[in-house]
Amino acid sequence: MDEGELIVSQRELHRMHVVRLTLEGRESASKGAELLGISTRQIKRLRKKMRERGAQGLLHGNRGRRPWNRTVPRTVKKVLQLAQGRYKGLNDTHLTEKLGEKEGVKLSRSTVRALLRQAGIVAVRKHRPKRHYKRRERKAQEGELLLWDGSPHRWLGESGPKWTLTVAIDDATGGLLYGVFSEQEDAQSYLTCLKQLLIDRGIALAIYMDRHGIFRRNDDHWTLQEELAGERIPTQVGQALKSLGIEPIFALSPQAKGRVERMFGTLQDRLVSELRLAGIGTRDRATAFVNGPFKNDFNRRFAKPPQQSQSAWRKVPRGLDVDRICSFRYEATVGNDNAVRVAGAILDIPEGPRHTGYAKSRVEVRQLLDGRWRVYYKDELLLETNKPQLRVPLRTRRRRRRTLDKGDIFADQLRGHIA
Asked: How many DSSP H helices and E strands does the chain contain?
């Protein structure tokens, strides 16, 4: 092979030129070694190879040979078929994990990425340059600070419905604690998360959240009762947090709660594919999947160990009614007929001891997450029912539609009743 037929790099050309200069006597061996950054002994070896084999003697011995670790064509074909078929839409890392765990194809992420790009399969997500933000140190103990938020997305794919996934994560570990799917971001989803956290873990010290109207009052209207008390009446979720002694911390920007925002980026990438592979098409099954095998696998891959092994979770006090805490609370006055009317629902209160009536009494009405209703008078349970009477006069239908709280369970039931 002639020297002109070799395909070499600029670095190799430089090496050939310096070695040739030393052979022709225009440079000494020590000077040539200095120019190439090698020892004098090494340049003498190169001079010998060039005298015996010419310029080709300075090239690496493996040039033109098939790499010993080259992926066999059969494996390449299988990877490309799976990437365009069963595992279509998975990112490079996720695809590499599935190939190793489900298909028995043990390849590195860089190898899978190279095979996909060579075949013209572009990356699922384009990586933009990261903006500079000041990092906030994680809390040292689990349960010291939680973050929760909701993300609307087509979780079943582009042709599927648009649901909202509400999740709670631990700041110390970044692990997923609980997630629930709903049609929209509402108070019921957050109360459901809170209830499950109380059952599974206990009471956290604080929760970091945005300034959504679900969590705090953002209007300027003060009722007479609030003016006399000197404070705003909390929202439904705010009342639950206050009764548990959980400190609400409100973020001033989306970047301030970046950990949960970044988690949604990962979930919108991975969870969509996992739901499709599992053949899930309903919200209830999707919620069960997120809090079952998906959460366990997600935390195994991404959660970090806390700085301190001691947990900051507080135990739920014995006798605390979790169902009552995590519910919708209303105050009402009992009518002369011993019935309470809340948003069109009529709750008939039975008589008390010695035929006692409760007319004109102020009571606390609770609507539980499972649809049941309770009525309390001075913390005494007067009534529990799951079948309240619904009486909505014709002339008030339009007004009811405007005033119902989208976060209430009963709102959905009543909309169906008056439709």
From this structure: 15, 12
